[in-house]
Amino acid sequence: MRAHTALIAAAVGFACSGSPAQPPATLAQVIMSPATATLAPGGTQQFSVSGTWSDGSVATPSVSYNATGGTMTAGGLYAAGTVPGNYRVIAVQQGGNPADTATVVTTSGSGGATILFQESFDDAGFAGRGWYDLPGGGITSVTTLEHILGSTASLEVNFDLAGTSPNPRVGGRHLFTESDAVYLRYWVKYSSNWVGSGRPYHPHEFSFVTSSDSAYVGPAYSGSTRF
After folding, report:
1. Which of 105, 203, 206, 214 is the least crowded, having the fewest Cβ atoms under 10 Å away?
2. Residues 8-106, CATH architecture
3. What are phi and psi of 130, to 5 degrees?
């Protein structure tokens, strides 16, 4: 599985009073605490925000929270999801500036999700990592030019304009332990001129097949889920 980024935004409001001739103080800095947290899947962490205003005053601003990759209460209590990885937590005032960032590391602790399979594309040795039904000569289009946070490489796939299959072929299959439920997450970046085939049913990036199918069944002949 890939590490994913969770984004938590804290919208800040404030009130100030004084002489009508004096401009109201503005929020100059947002500081979120703690700066880092390590949680088991489903674990919780209480976050708080302090603020420094342009007149030098320091106070706790009124904030509201929202989150992806986890849940957040109105009081700032973050609950980690079930997917291990490094997550980014951002506190930002309304308008987008200033902001502060913290890191949440979700571990694969007991009681959480079990990683059935993950691929980091570190090199082209796919067969040695259990991939099969690879094209002749294997897959060599691994690049270090683009990759997600925490990784060093990615798989590059090229399609001709309106093509329905990659050129050259980069397909492959990988078995994993049977499970009653599967959660899938992946990262993909399309080029600026990507248009696809213009049809809703292809090209497919990957598919799931079940143990009731053969190890080489085609997606069109199985009850698979295609993406």
Report:
1. 214
2. Sandwich (2.60)
3. 95, 5
